[in-house]
Write a structure and sequence with these properties.
With about 500 residues, chain A is mainly α. Chain A has helices at about 5-25, 30-45, 50, 85-100, 110-130, 135-145, 145-155, 160-190, 195-200, 205-220, 230-240, 240-265, 270-295, 300-320, 325-355, 365-370, 370-385, 390-405, 405-415, 415-430, 440, 450-465, 470-475, 475-490; strands at about 60-70, 75-80. The longest helix of chain A is centred in the last third of the chain and has 32 residues, at about 325-355. The chains are: A mainly alpha (about 500), B mainly alpha (about 675).
Chain lengths: ~500, ~675
């Protein structure tokens, strides 16, 4: 491990983004795109050794880098990944390549700035997943809001300003409470910002509850959980395709990741105490949001609601405190990264051609875009959790873990098998099947080589993970088991 | 060759064909598309024959292929269990699939989606093989949903037809309702047995005989009852048992070859196969078996009634399939698993034959499916006529034909069963014999005999299902006046002949070894003390020919014969009688026409209710309360406060001076008082 791989994964995209920003303008847009793509691919390549060099037998942090940053407050540039976070660094870097490709011919306005925003955001998100210092985490966590805020606010749809501000305020509200909790932990731990130190810190029950609630609000907004989810559909609807992809594939995972890195290990007793609350909110997300998704007329809104429903499975899996539940939730997170990303890209493909996201404006797309219809079918089925796709694995694990936990919780969660299939396939039927609905549909061109490449890569990921999830789960075992052992031990002294 | 490699080859050969024909469907020519898929399925069939011989020689296999996933204390594998039950299913699936592949060359030859169709049916064959060859619940579920997917794709194969794309979504969703129960059952198995491998689960099952779990209220349920009912709900979806049967009649929107392959011979019998496979579990719960028995009996009888009033040739066969699936389920409930599998096998042959025969008629009629426009076809389509007659005779249980042996065994098994519900089931299956004979020969006479009614092109008289009989569709042309139907090409008639042979003979050949010869020894487990049905059957069995001789003295034979005679009288001799009955009993007729109102209830209560609920939650919850009141509301409050507070900052110095003085005075007062 001679190379600081995590730093490279963070800083390569950021520097590439700055380079694009410095050199690019709309006059030489092609150059900006090429630089951005090279930066994204390079950023992805440096993450592969994270998997190949990963030691899945230990739960300790790996690829650790530790440099003092602000010694006055004992803040360190402390990076490292374990079986929980490592896959997300790779996923994020992969999705970045996808979005740069996805915006290739589509974005013509402020090309350099657009690509730069995505690259910088990608680096910051890698920072979130690998930060082991509370303050460093917070800085990355907050900083990553800015590019996404700009992406929605600048390249978004007609109502983009409302959506961007709603998104920003919602998440800022959560993160302020998060900051308070961090400062409290800093003082309690006698002046340490190390997350790993906090994991060992004894805390009284009352304080744990407050810390847990502060974390809960911060992360619940990000996930998003019911009832703080309403920013997501608006943000998705107004965001450009790339923004939606990153938001769904990575953005939503930040909150869920926070639960595992902060809530569970730092406040284990409060987590056990308040698990019922989180489980209840998760089930509401799964069932309530499923029905809400059913009646959406806007495809992006439908997929946005479907994302909330799928993320309900993630939080449900976490708080049953079983290995299968947590691993199932992690698998669901990765799978959702592929599937929701692909769903938004598919909607983007249609939007680029028709400039509408209304289901009613479509019909019979399969007649003019058969290749696209085939891909969309695969991703729709993955969204409905069909076996052999990645969407099945996580749901299967969480449902099975839930049956063991409580039959009726499993019953409610499993209802997504019906409702999830209903809203996905009903949308698919209305958009893709049928006779050509109107002249716009008649004039559609099937996907081009670039779009084919993107969708095919994602299709391979979806199928590969569905047919053989073992490589994904085996790296998680040690870390998840360690986490569970940790959660089982009380911190009250 | 090493047997494990052969198993893999059997399963993967159709997948290879499907991948080539599917991924390159626009690139490769048609002959290559059908050659590669037929070759794949042929390899699979030959392999299945070899596997069957190997199993007959006493070699079984149970082992993993690869580890799908490990998590916590559990590990999930993809693996094969090859025993007599699997080998039987493999033979049936690959043989019928091969026949259907060949037949498709003729049936689909004008269709622009030719290669795509071959790709789908090969993919189906792969999925079905994975289902029956599985050695664990996970892979079973995997194949279970995969066949559902292919069924979805194939029902909606003609994706421009509104009825087809409605039917395929309906089929998928109704199946998902079943799978919902199924996955809960699987979850309970894993939670209590700690494994999803059949062998481990079945070995551990006896330990849980008296385990109870608390599911609802204070009452304790036997674990095995809950597990078995959950699993059976899955079977109800896939094998179309009331009330989850509603998708199967609509699935006839798909091309006829897949109606034969998927919706008659193989996929819909997956539930029967599954319950037979789980016999060690079901045997431990008489309650669950009673549930199975009653559901099966209801399906067997009441779906048969609906077959009587259908005018679409495929729908008659579809309702007949529903009814026969009910018979198989009844056999399961009576603990006669081997009889259910036996009927599954004979039914696969004769029902595939009937569907393909119906398809041949549809080709001859230029895609007109209305029996009222047919008649007298025997002169023009002799091979189709003879083979369909053989299929119908097998279906109604004519002695010596395949269906006779299996259906009579079911009836006797139910008669011997004494679990709750057996009395009703016995009545249902017995009455069902008459109904089956009646609707089968109604169809037979209307299509092949009597007055030639084709060439008149009166499509405007459609009645019945308004939602599924599209009048003005291009797939529904029919013969022009003066045109005569022609016998179909050899690729169509060859499979008919090849399927007719087992439809006649397989019962005679197979009954003794399959039911009484220890064929399923160690595979199907029966609690001989609690459910001694098979013992009693074996006691009364004296060889297949003696069974035929005995049949003439039993009720089912005479019921079947009277069904045929009544059909002949009603539809050949006095066609005015059925019309009169229809008028006389218009209330009853309305119930049947509306298929007991299942569709209407589902449409309004479940589909409509879900949409209403979704709209209510969205408009009321998300938009009004959360966004309108809390989010934008708090923004408004902030805005309002800011607007109020703004008045304090007027910018006039005398305002500020005034406030300062007042404030100073107030402070002074407070200070002085203290």
């Amino acid at each position: 491990m001679s190379y600081p791989l995590l730093s490279l994964a963070i800083w390569i995209p950021i520097f590439a983004g700055l380079l694009v920003l410095a050199t690019g303008s709309d006059r030489n847009a092609p150059m900006a795109r090429v630089i951005a793509l090279c930066g994204a691919i390079l950023g992805l390549l440096v993450t592969f050794p994270l998997y190949s060099g990963f030691d899945s037998s230990t739960s300790a942090m790996q690829f650790v880098e530790l440099v003092p940053w602000i010694p006055r407050f004992n803040i360190n540039y402390h990076l490292g990944v374990d079986g929980i976070s490592m896959l997300f660094v790779i996923l994020n870097s992969f999705i970045t390549v996808m979005v740069v490709l996805a915006g290739w011919q589509v974005v013509e306005n402020k090309v350099a700035q657009y690509n730069a925003a995505f690259l910088i955001m990608s680096g910051l998100m890698n920072g979130i997943f690998s930060a082991l210092d509370g303050m460093l985490f917070y800085v990355f966590f907050e900083a990553s809001l800015i590019p996404l805020y700009l992406i929605i606010g600048v390249w978004g749809g007609p109502n983009r300003v409302y959506a961007a501000i709603k998104f920003f305020l919602y998440t800022l509200l959560g993160s302020l409470l998060f900051l308070v909790a961090l400062l409290y932990l800093f003082i309690q731990s006698g002046g340490s910002f190390s997350i790993l130190d906090w994991h060992q810190l004894p805390i009284a029950m009352g304080a744990q509850i407050w810390i847990f609630l502060a974390f809960l609000i911060a992360f619940a907004v990000k996930v998003p959980m019911f009832p703080v989810h309403t920013w997501l559909p608006d943000a998705h609807v107004e965001a450009p395709t790339g923004g939606s992809v990153v938001l769904a594939a990575i953005g939503l995972k930040l909150g869920a990741y926070g639960f595992l890195r902060f809530s569970l290990p730092i406040a284990p007793d409060a987590s056990q105490e308040l698990a019922g609350l989180v489980i209840a909110l998760s089930l509401i997300a799964v069932v309530y949001i499923g029905f809400v998704a059913l009646v959406q007329a806007d495809m992006k809104k439908l997929v946005a609601y479907s994302s909330i429903s799928h993320m309900g499975f993630v939080t449900l899996g976490f708080f049953m405190f079983s290995a299968m539940g947590i691993e199932g939730a992690l698998v669901q997170m990765i799978s959702h990264g592929f599937v929701s990303g692909a769903m938004f890209l598919c909607i983007g493909v249609l939007y680029d051609r028709m400039h509408s996201r209304q289901i009613a404006d479509y019909g019979g797309v399969v007649n003019t875009m058969p290749k696209f219809a085939a891909f969309f079918m695969l991703f729709a089925m993955a969204n409905a959790g069909l076996p052999a796709t990645s969407g099945f694995v996580g749901e299967f694990m969480v449902i099975l873990a839930a049956v063991k936990f409580n039959f009726w919780i499993a019953f409610a969660a499993a209802s997504t098998m019906i409702v999830g299939a209903a809203y996905t396939l009903w949308m698919y039927k209305r958009v893709i099947f049928g006779d050509v609905a109107n002249d716009h549909v008649r004039e559609l061109n099937d996907i081009n080589g670039r779009e084919f490449l993107i969708l095919a890569l994602l299709a391979l990921c979806v199928l590969g993970m569905g047919l053989y999830p073992q490589p994904f789960t085996e790296v998680m075992h040690a870390s998840v088991n360690d986490l569970l052992r940790h959660v089982a031990i009380t911190k009250i002294q | 060759m090493e047997m494990q490699k052969l198993y893999l080859l059997v399963a993967l050969a159709p997948l290879f064909g499907a991948a080539v024909a599917g991924l390159l469907c626009r690139v490769i020519p048609r002959w290559l598309g059908h050659t590669v898929t037929i070759a794949g399925v042929a390899v699979s069939f030959i392999g299945s024959v070899l596997v069957f011989q190997d199993v007959m020689a006493g070699n079984t296999f149970n082992g993993p292929v690869y580890t799908w996933m490990t998590t916590g204390d559990y590990s999930f594998h993809v693996g094969f269990l090859i025993d007599s039950l699997t080998a039987t299913m493999m033979l049936v699936v690959t043989f019928v699939s091969l026949m259907v592949h060949i037949y498709t060359i003729g049936y689909m030859h004008e269709d622009p989606g030719y290669n795509r169709f071959f790709s789908y049916i090969s993919l189906f064959t792969f999925s079905m093989l994975m289902l029956v060859m599985s050695n664990n619940f996970m892979q079973l579920f995997f194949g279970w949903e995969a066949v559902g997917l292919v069924s979805y794709l194939l029902i909606g194969f003609w994706y421009t037809r509104p009825t087809a794309i409605f039917a395929n979504m309906k089929a998928f969703l109704v199946n998902r309702v079943g799978d919902f129960g199924f996955i809960l059952g699987i979850g309970l198995v894993l939670a209590h047995f700690g494994s999803l491998d059949y062998a481990t689960v079945f070995a551990k099952a006896p330990e849980f005989a008296n385990t109870t779990i608390n599911i609802w209220g204070a009452a304790d349920w036997s674990l095995m009852t809950v597990v078995c009912i959950c699993l059976f709900i899955g079977a109800m979806g896939k094998s179309a048992q009331v009330p989850l049967h509603v998708w199967l009649p609509d699935s006839m929107e798909g091309p006829t070859p897949i109606s034969a392959l998927i919706h008659a011979a193989t996929m819909v019998t997956a539930g029967i196969f599954m319950v037979s496979r789980m016999s060690p579990l079901f045997e431990m719960s008489t309650t669950a078996l009673s549930f199975v028995l009653v559901i099966g009996a209801i399906t067997a009888l009441f779906m048969g009634f609906l077959g009587i009033i259908q005018n679409d040739i495929k729908r008659v066969v579809a309702y007949s399939t529903l009814s026969q699936l009910g018979y198989m389920t009844v056999a399961l409930g009576a603990s006669a698993y081997s009889v259910a599998v036996f009927h599954l096998m004979t039914h696969a042959f004769f029902k595939a034959l009937l569907f393909l025969g119906a398809g041949s008629v549809i080709i001859g009629m230029h895609h007109d499916q209305d029996m009222r426009n047919m008649g007298g076809l025997r002169k023009y389509m002799p091979i189709t006529w003879i083979t369909s007659l053989l299929g119908s005779l097998a279906l109604i249980g004519t002695p010596f034909f395949a269906g006779f042996y299996s259906k009579d065994s079911i009836i006797e098994a139910v008669a011997a069963s004494h679990i709750p519900g057996a009395g009703f089931a016995y009545f249902a299956v017995l009455a069902g014999v008459f109904v089956t004979a009646f609707y089968s020969f109604r169809m037979y006479f209307l299509v092949f005999h009597g007055e030639e009614r084709f060439g008149k092109a009166h499509h405007d008289e459609h009645t019945g299902d308004h939602d599924d009989e599209e009048v003005s569709h291009d797939h529904h042309h029919g013969l022009a006046p003066g045109q005569k139907p022609h016998e179909s090409p050899w690729v169509v008639t060859l499979p008919l002949v090849l399927l007719a042979i087992p439809s006649v003979l397989i019962g005679y050949v197979a009954i003794e070894p399959l039911l009484y010869g220890g064929y399923f020894e160690g595979v199907i487990h029966i609690d001989k003390v609690a459910h001694p049905v098979m013992e009693e059957l074996a006691h009364e069995f004296h060889g297949p020919l003696a069974m035929v001789a005995h049949a003439f003295r039993t009720a089912p034979f005479w019921l079947a014969l009277s069904g045929v005679v009544v059909a002949w009288f009603f539809y050949m001799k006095r066609p005015d009688i059925p019309a009169a009955i229809q008028r006389r009993f218009s209330g009853l007729n309305a119930i049947l026409e509306n298929k007991y109102f299942f569709d209407k209830i589902n449409e309004t209560v479940f589909a409509g209710g879900a949409r209403l609920l979704g709209r209510g939650l969205w408009r009321g919850g998300d938009v009004a309360v959360i966004d309108g009141f809390i989010v934008n509301g708090s923004a408004k409050v902030v805005g309002w406060m800011a607007a109020v507070v703004r008045y304090f900052q007027t910018g006039y110095v005398y305002h500020y001076a005034f406030t300062m003085i007042i404030g100073l005075l107030l402070l002074l007062t407070l200070w002085v008082r203290v």
